[in-house]
Amino acid sequence: MKRRDFLRNSTLASTAMFTPNFLRSSAMANASRLASRSGKILIVLQLSGGNDGLNTVIPFGDDLYYQNRPVLGIPRKEVLGLNDHQGLHPALLPLRKLYDRGEMTIINSVGYPNPDRSHFRSMDIWQTGSPATESWSTGWIGRHLDTAAAGKPAYHALEVDDGLSLAMKGATRTGFAMSRPDRLRQAVRNQRLHGLTADHTAGNPSLGYLYKTLTETTEAAGYLFEQSKVKKATADYPKGAFGRDLKQIAELITADTATNIYYASLGGFDTHVQQQNRQQRLLAQYAQSVAALVEDLKANNLFNDVLIMTFSEFGRRLKQNASGGTDHGTANNVFLMGGKLKTAGIFNNAPNLSTLDRGDIIHEIDFRRCYATLIDDWLEGDSMAVLGQKFASLGVV
Fold first, then answer.
1. Which InterPro entries match (predicted)?
2. What percent of the chain has pLDDT over 90?
3. Helix 205-228 crosses helix 241-254 at what angle (to 10 degrees)?
4. Which of 94, 220, 238, 285 is deepest in the core (most CB within 10 A)?
């Protein structure tokens, strides 16, 4: 059997966990059972589809907002005011406490030069950290693993999903994908795969690779399954996949799992039609899930060790469309949340709605400055090696 055919057809392929150097040896895998995390924890939350940032952090003090959104504009009386000019969508009420406690930073007008309004291309740019004029095959977290995670298990960076995003794939190392520990454990018990033994694979590099991968994945599955049972979350998470994902992250963190980077996604934000109710529902799900995660982390005195970043691949256009929605835009807001922020609140001015680029917000903050901040100031890595050039830190962590 060819390796690519195996990867495509096996049940393990659905969990997207393989890499040739997944773990260096079974001894390392066994040692990781006794290890615990060291250092700070980063949680990256992706709002897929292009969340409407102007209806998330609302410039209610600018009349141009209401002139361009006579139906979609959030009424001033409903906005959760943060200052005289901006406020949060009412569905984000669970996050208001974090903001008031100095545990949340809002960065406005984040984007990149030569913006691309394609979901796929813009997400590739955000996930790789590349210039818009170049296409890279590795992700920004993956390259961080290449440079800073020697000797660490693959689940040093864990994506809570059935597949591994480009952001988590490096040149020599990748992260680990797992939607649910019990499903992962079940997948590696595939009897067809267990027919492989060291004797069967002797002299066959492809089968040898599969045998090694199975052995190492089984070790990881067992470790993560056991870790998931150590400490149960007590906060009230909303029903649905995203709430379940964040609950799982909380349980793994409080169990002192040897994972320092977590990645999760919430989709559905491509709101060309009937945006109002859909975005409200999604933002409520996001805010309630994050608030529950923070509650669990605080209950275990861990929130000071955690930084949460939320982004979307682009924002939406200022002007509402004829279908009760908004079309693909460019710059957007980014949220940072944590117990040890140096600079909390609104980081920079609201978007300038009087000066647009073909109806879109002009970016003021390059998104790679956010990454440089996370890599250098929080993860204590080397953003120059990861991003290929130097970007100034935001100085918020």
1. DUF1501 (IPR010869)
2. 74
3. 80
4. 220
